[in-house]
TrEMBL record:
Signal peptide range: none
InterPro entries, alphabetized: CheY-like_superfamily, OmpR/PhoB-type_DNA-bd, Sig_transdc_resp-reg_receiver, WalR-like, WH-like_DNA-bd_sf
Protein name per its UniProtKB record: Response regulator transcription factor
Alphabetized CDD domains for the sequence: trans_reg_C
DNA-binding region coordinates: 124-223
Pfam families: Response_reg, Trans_reg_C
Keyword Acetylation: no
Domain Response regulatory, chain residue ranges per copy: 2-116
Residues that bear 4-aspartylphosphate: 51
Upper classification of the organism: Bacteria, Pseudomonadati, Bacteroidota, Sphingobacteriia, Sphingobacteriales
Length: 223
């Protein structure tokens, strides 16, 4: 799961980042309006944590741009401004939830999990496809009720596929989702092949009724 933190208070941004990384999230950051808008428009995230007051602009304008272009992100507004008007406006223009500063990190985590479930998992705690079940919060994968052992990147890749079954996913998209925004600067993406090869072998050994199919020159899809 990849999170974008848009926050200009550097100490708070770093504390949130460290906390979410300890919870096994992949975290990207932006400290000002131009950087935040560029990342929100050009990369994909499972959830964006959005401060309203930013150097160079207003966070709500990022929401407006996302809505205008049809770019879909789950968004949790984080702001010291706790007026009813700000909450209503943020929700009306596309935010999923609103959390006023200061907040406890445990509540932040609960809100993020809830938003992701609503947007990506249709409210369910488990993701199911054929005879595979994945529990993202406890990082457990079951095939016919038997546990499947995966390393962190294998789990994150399978999670990404299970949220998008039978959809062709480009290599760059997979790399950015699991390894971070700047992975597109890598000389090649051969490391994805080795991870997917391992997942396919483990799924086959577990008698999973699903496989990750390569589409030559483009990417992969779960079928």
């Amino acid at each position: 799961m990849k999170i974008l933190i848009i926050e200009d208070e550097l100490a708070l941004q770093e504390n949130i980042k460290e906390f979410l990384e300890s919870e096994q999230y992949l975290v990207e950051t932006a400290v000002d309006f131009p950087t935040a808008l560029d990342k929100a428009m050009n990369y994909s995230y499972d959830c964006i944590l959005l401060d309203i007051m930013l150097p160079g602009g207003n966070g709500l304008d990022i929401l407006r741009e996302l809505q205008k272009t049809g770019k879909k992100h789950a968004v949790l507004i984080l702001s010291a401004k706790d007026s009813v008007e700000d909450k209503v406006l943020g929700l009306e223009i596309g935010a999923d939830d609103y959390l006023a500063k200061p907040f406890h990190f445990t509540e932040l985590l609960a809100r993020i999990k809830s938003i992701i479930r609503r947007n990506a998992q249709e409210g369910s705690r488990l993701i199911s496809y054929q005879n595979i079940k994945l529990d993202p919060e406890n990082r457990i994968v079951l095939v016919d009720s038997n546990p499947l052992t995966l390393n962190r990147k294998e789990f994150d890749l399978l999670y990404y596929f299970l949220l998008r079954p039978e959809r062709l996913l480009e290599k760059t998209t997979l790399a950015e989702a699991v390894w971070g925004d700047h992975v597109d600067q890598a000389d090649n993406l051969d490391f994805i092949y080795s991870q997917i090869k391992n997942i396919r072998r483990k799924l086959k050994d577990a008698s999973a009724r699903a496989d990750i199919q390569a589409v030559y020159g483009v990417g992969y899809k779960l079928v």
